[in-house]
């Protein structure tokens, strides 16, 4: 161990002086050094204390982040949540731009019906959920094609009917279904199957988005013009509904049935306030979805609350801050514009064309009210 500087040691630590005077000289030099340092010594001590406190805080943050990772269930949930957050964030961009926020809510309700019917017949949870949501997407597309009906009406009719079937089955057929976990998500319930389902669906979603990005953007902004240019807008609509259905199914274990709708709306709505292009909106929305999932899962672990509400409330808090900031910035911009804008009344001197209609025969804006 390196020896401490002599001016930091006590006199008794200086050791005996064989010559009789060297010890006194060393003690005197140490005292002079301490006396000469004065405020600088106290400043050094204060700086050392600040560094020590910062290190302790760093260790606390590090422990806060790493302790949950010691549990296998949390690691699985974190990986699955990251994939689900990325998918829901990217999907949220198109849900918001297409004004179809109700579709996530409706398809999530269909999941409960499919899960209940599947368990009643001894079918795996994911099989029942995927059958119900894909059937819902196809029925929504078929009903929306009827004359005089819009997509929101089709979503309401189809998905609430399947949800009602699920509730009726749960009331009649005894099952071991943990309804609370299905409704609100369950951090402890994420197993290897859930993780692989999330990863597989995430890979499929990324491939579809990469291949159909331009047609999807085209159909999102103007379906009629897209049809003129050869884009099969109806096929894009159906494919979008099917992709949304699969993403909803993959998100059930982490987010829960009732809160998936918020996860596919909030990131896109927040990104819409922060960006001006669809590419930037897609990137920001995806990042917000991942961040909300990660932070929400940590809060779920430490606060002992369901993972779904924790993730959604994290995203909603970010949206609230961004919305308030955007509103404040808009008010400031409006105030600056009013301060530097020219007066709207007549500005020219009396008797000239600028003030009373003059030679050009035009009536000033301010004079038209008289």
Residues in helices, as a percent range:
over 70%
> What is the tally of beta strands?
0
Mean of pLDDT:
76
Rg measurement, Å: 33 Å
**CATH level-1 class:** Mainly Alpha
Low-confidence stretches: 1-37, 351-370
- CATH topology name: ABC transporter involved in vitamin B12 uptake, BtuC
**Number of helices in the DSSP assignment:** 16
Class based on secondary structure composition and strand pairing: mainly alpha
Q: Any idea what the CATH architecture is? A: Orthogonal Bundle
Can you give a write-up of this model?
The protein is mainly alpha-helical and 370 residues long. The protein starts with 21 loop residues before the first helix and ends in a 14-residue tail after the last helix. Helix 3 packs parallel to helix 8, helix 3 (72-97) packs antiparallel against helix 11 and helix 5 (125-144) packs antiparallel against helix 6. Helix content is 74%, strand content 0%. It has helices spanning 22-37, 39-66, 72-97, 101-120, 125-144, 151-172, 179-184, 192-211, 213-221, 223-228, 233-255, 260-263, 266-274, 278-303, 307-340, 353-356. The chain has one domain (71-331): ABC transporter involved in vitamin B12 uptake, BtuC. The protein contains 16 helices and no strands.
Helix and strand layout, with pairings?
Elements: H1 22-37, H2 39-66, H3 72-97, H4 101-120, H5 125-144, H6 151-172, H7 179-184, H8 192-211, H9 213-221, H10 223-228, H11 233-255, H12 260-263, H13 266-274, H14 278-303, H15 307-340, H16 353-356
Helix pairs in contact: 3-8, 3-11, 3-13, 3-14, 4-5, 4-6, 4-11, 5-6, 5-11, 8-11, 13-14, 13-15, 14-15
């Amino acid at each position: 161990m390196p020896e401490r500087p002599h001016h930091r040691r006590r006199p008794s630590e200086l050791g005996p002086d064989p010559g009789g005077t060297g010890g006194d000289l060393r003690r005197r030099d140490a005292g002079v050094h301490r006396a000469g340092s004065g405020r600088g010594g106290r400043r050094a001590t204060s700086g050392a204390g600040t560094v020590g406190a910062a290190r302790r805080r760093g260790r606390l943050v590090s422990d806060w982040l790493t302790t949950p990772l010691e549990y296998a269930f949390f690691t699985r949930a974190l990986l699955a949540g990251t994939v689900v957050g990325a998918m829901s964030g990217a999907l949220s961009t198109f849900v918001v731009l297409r004004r179809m926020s109700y579709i996530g809510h409706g398809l999530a309700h269909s999941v409960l019906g499919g899960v209940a019917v599947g368990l009643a017949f001894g079918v795996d949870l994911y099989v029942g959920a995927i059958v119900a949501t894909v059937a819902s997407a196809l029925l929504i597309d078929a009903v929306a094609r009827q004359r005089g009906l819009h997509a929101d009406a089709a979503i309401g009719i189809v998905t609430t009917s399947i949800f009602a079937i699920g509730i009726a089955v749960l009331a009649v057929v005894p099952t071991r279904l943990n309804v609370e976990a299905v409704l609100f998500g369950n951090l402890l319930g994420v197993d290897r199957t859930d993780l692989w389902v999330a990863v597989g669906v995430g890979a499929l979603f990324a491939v579809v988005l990469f291949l159909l990005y331009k047609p999807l953007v085209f159909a999102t902004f103007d379906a009629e013009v897209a049809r003129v240019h050869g884009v099969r807008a109806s096929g894009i609509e159906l494919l979008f509904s099917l992709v949304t259905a699969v993403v909803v199914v993959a998100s059930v274990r982490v987010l829960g049935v009732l809160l998936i709708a918020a996860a596919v709306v909030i990131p896109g709505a927040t990104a819409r306030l922060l960006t001006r292009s669809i590419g930037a909106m897609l990137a920001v929305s995806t990042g917000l979805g991942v961040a909300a999932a990660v932070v929400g899962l940590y809060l779920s672990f430490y606060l002992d609350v369901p993972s779904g509400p924790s993730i959604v409330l994290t995203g909603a808090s970010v949206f609230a801050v961004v919305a308030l900031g955007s509103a404040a910035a808009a008010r400031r911009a409006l105030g600056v514009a009013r301060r530097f804008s020219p007066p709207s009344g007549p500005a020219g001197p009396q008797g000239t064309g600028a003030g009373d209609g003059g030679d050009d025969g035009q009536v000033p804006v301010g004079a038209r009210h008289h």
